[in-house]
Amino acid sequence: MLRVERLQVAGLPPLSFEVPTGECLAVEGASGTGKTLLLRAIADLDAAPGDVTLDGEERREMTPQEWRRRVRYCAAEPAWWCDTPRECLATGHPRIDRLMQSLDLDAVLLDQPVATLSTGERQRLALVRALLDEPKVLLLDEPTGALDPQATALTEELIRFQLLSGHSVLLVSHDEAQVERLSHARLLLSKANGGDDGERARRS
Predict the structure, then answer these.
(1) How far apart are CA 102 and CA 178, in angstroms?
(2) Per-residue pLDDT tens for 124-164?
(3) Which of 161, 172, 165 is nearest to 42 (CA)?
(4) What pTM value is reported for the model?
(5) Domain count across the chain
(6) Which domain holds residue 172?
(7) Which residues does 36 contact at the CB level (< 8 Å), separation at least 6?
(8) Cβ neighbours of residue 178 under 8 Å, at least 6 residues apart?
(9) Tens of pLDDT along 79-97?
(10) Which of 80, 107, 111, 188 to pair with 129, CA 20 to 30 A apart?
């Protein structure tokens, strides 16, 4: 279980919530309410006061690298630091072929220059990269934003498999139907109407 206690993300009040093992929590809110900032803070990519634990182990007791191996952030526009996808992946990893097939990706794409790949191909390849070492928690920021309906369906099926395998997911998605299909609970980030409360979060 991922537990967040009084996490202070810029522009938001302290947030506390849990994501049980095998469940998906959808993070919702209008543009600019801090959804991406929240995911990045949980992944320890941006500094944010508060306590975050995974299966009882506190984030501050791990190195940032070890935490991010267990709690993996997948950006809406993933970064690539190599010329080809294969250079960014663990060479010969036994899960590569299975993950590529599950997302209908041709193995030839692994050796293509990243700059020549479509946005959707880069997005799916980034998900393959994220899943190779089987993180316990996936922080998915618009994971199908650049995908057609067929690729979206395959990606959702892979996310469901991760949940059935005992992983937890935080999902940011503009697709309300997708949220309905995948999420077990929702965390709403919303701007307060007047007063001094700033932004408020509620779980529904």
Answers:
(1) 18
(2) 999 999 999 999 999 999 999 999 999 999 999 999 999 99
(3) 172
(4) 0.91
(5) 1
(6) 2-203
(7) 75, 76, 141, 172
(8) 144, 152, 156, 171
(9) 999 999 999 887 677 889 9
(10) 188
